[in-house]
Amino acid sequence: MNKVTTLRVFRFDPDSDKEPRFDEYKFTVQEPVSVLVALSRLQKEQDPTLAFRDYSCGLQLCGSCLLKINGKQQVACHQLVRGGETLTLEPLFFPERHVRDLVYIPEE
């Protein structure tokens, strides 16, 4: 059975926004998908302005998709979204390295 899932996504564009905010996106999930797949789906179906790092190795090795998911540092390629859940997604917050929305410049 399909259940409505909600993603609360941190949004901030330093070039145009005065303050960060959270936007809520609702969609149905038939079977669990990764947070990264869910973000790609949201970007395609609901909000093409959503910025996130959409490349990852998918093996929890490269760390390019690290986010705070419900307040905990996790890799978006492996954290699952299940129907009926509400997840809060934030960048790993380094103000000096924040680019936009969920994108930040990782340490070298």
Written account of the structure:
With 108 residues, this protein is mainly beta. The chain has one domain (3-104): Ubiquitin-like (UB roll) (Roll). The chain contains 1 helix and 9 strands; from the N terminus they run βββαββββββ. It has a 5-stranded mixed sheet, with no helix packed on it. A two-stranded antiparallel ribbon has the order 3-6. Strand 8 and strand 9 form a beta hairpin. 20% of the residues are buried.
Give the topology:
Layout: E1 3-11, E2 21-29, E3 33-34, H1 35-45, E4 66-69, E5 72-75, E6 80-81, E7 86-90, E8 98-100, E9 103-104
Parallel strand pairs: 1-7
Antiparallel strand pairs: 1-2, 3-6, 4-5, 4-7, 8-9
The percent range for strand residues is: 35-45%
**CATH level 4 superfamily:** Beta-grasp domain
Helix tally equals 1
Which structural category do the helix and sheet elements fall into? mainly beta
CA-based shape: globular
Say how many strands there are.
9
Any key phrases for this structure?
single chain, 108 residues, mainly beta, Ubiquitin-like (UB roll), five-stranded mixed sheet, two-stranded antiparallel ribbon, 37% strand
Short characterization:
This protein is mainly beta and 108 residues long. It has one helix at residues 35-45, and strands at residues 3-11, 21-29, 33-34, 66-69, 72-75, 80-81, 86-90, 98-100, 103-104.
